[in-house]
Structures are given as C-alpha cells and as structure tokens.
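REVIEWER CHECKLIST
Item 1: Sequence provided? yes
Item 2: Single chain? yes
Item 3: Sequence as submitted:
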Amino acid sequence: MRIFVTGASGWIGSALVPELLSAGHGVVGLARSDASAATLEGAGTEVLRGALDDLDTLRAAAAGSDGVIHLAYNHSTDLDAAAKTDSRVIEVLGEALEGSGRPLVIASGTPNLNGRVATERDEPGAAGVAAARGANARAAIAMAGRGVRSCVVRLPRSVHGEGDLHGFVPRLIATAHKKGVSGYVGDGSSRWPAVHVLDAARLFRLAVEEAPGGSVLHAVGDEGVPTSEIAGCIGRHLNLPTASVPAEDFGFLGLVLAGDQPASSALTRELFGWRPVQPGLIEDLNQGHYFVEPA
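Item 4: Structure as written out by the authors:
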C-alpha cells in the first residue's frame, strides 16, 4: 500500500514510519518544515511539503494514496481553533477517499470516565477538549457509511519509550526537578493508562491494513498505573522524595493527574490478536533512558 501519513515526523509517526516500511508499504509523509522533511527523507519516505491548513494539498495526497493515517494535531494554546482545524482535515481526507473503500485511520484519546475502566464502546466526555476531539472521531467513524474504511485508534495518557521528549512523563520529571519532590495529586490512587510507542505503531499498521470500517481501537498496554507508583519510580531515579502535592504545581497536567482514568484494550486484542510486547510504563522508566540528559 501507498500510505499518506500526517504527523509522520512526530513522536508516534517516527515509530510508525519504520513499522510501515518494514511491512512493505510505501509512505508519503507530510512535512511542514525543512527539519521534518530531512527526517522523513532520512527514514526513506516520500516527502510532501505542507501543513494542516493546506487543504488542497491534503486532498490530493489522500486521493493519490491507498490509505491515510492522520496523526498530526495542532497542539496550540487556542484549543477551539485546533479542534476546528482537525475537523476540517478529517472531512477533507474523508472526501478524497469517499466511495473507494480505502482506509482512513485517525488518532484520538481514550475516554476519561471518572474511575470506570473505559472500553472501545465508550464515548468521550461531553465537555472541553475531549468533547471536541470526540466529535471529530465520531465524524471519522461515520464516514464508513460513505464508503471509507474509517477507524479511530485511541491513545492513552502516556505513549512512552526511548526518545520521548515532550510527553507527560518528561513533564513530570521536569516538574520533579524544579520542585525538588516527585509528586502526585491527592492520595496517588488515580490511574494512568499507558502504551509503549512501538506497540502503538504496530496497532496503527494493523488498523490501516485490516480494521473494519467504523471501528474504534484502544492502543492500551497498561490499563492503569497508579500515579503514586509513577511518582515513586521517578523519585527513586532522581533521588528525590515522593509526596502528594497540589494539582496546580503541575500546571494543566494537574487535572490529568487528579483524574482516575483507566482504559482497557480487551476488545482490540480480541479483534486483532494485538498484544503489547514492549515494556510497560514502570519497566520502561526503570530502564533509565528518561533520566539521561539529552546530548
């Protein structure tokens, strides 16, 4: 297959591209900058210069592909604008594939159900950013009725692995350095779902290859790791104490840490036989690469 990938040079894309290439697929990667283009060229992909607001470019690329994986998202401070941009991108990609039976796979997030384990059958929350991204995901799923083999792959709070520089775990480590304590919110019993980036990449490949139209998949390895356990592991590696701290000490991440939001991938595993084979979050932290200063 010739697969068009947005976000191909990003954290998940950088793991997905070699996964697709090793499976014999051709990859066209969207690159907004010279640095991204150089990264993709070095990885052996065809490069398409453009951005998420270049709708004609996206439409043509999708029309000329055998399938699309949409990973890119504009994580700006204007959350409403970012969600609207994503909505337009999904619609344009779907229009280009309409009636073809070709796949459109998009990334989203696992729902936060306030203590209940979220499954693939659950809907995201009805407010805030989750609601906007959930609406975009539902729009993609509905494209199955328009002859698009659409699929949503939901990602957990932590997609971890060596090379992760900007995810939630590096933010926790940076906060611990700054505050002198590795903290958690409340009693630390809130749970965080997680997956290794290589396991997530493999699920995206399986989805573009064979997921039924209108399907929702969960790329979840760890169903829910207690935040106190995450903080304790970080504290041991940094030789810092571990304690409960106010949510505001973490900025926007405080709300995420405070919520108990486990998620299951049981239905996804049953559908595909997908099994995470990479280290879980705590095992990955214990390998030490998160605590090595970048060169």
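Item 5: Key structural point noted by reviewer: Residues 79-97 form the longest helix (19 residues).
Item 6: Recommendation: ____
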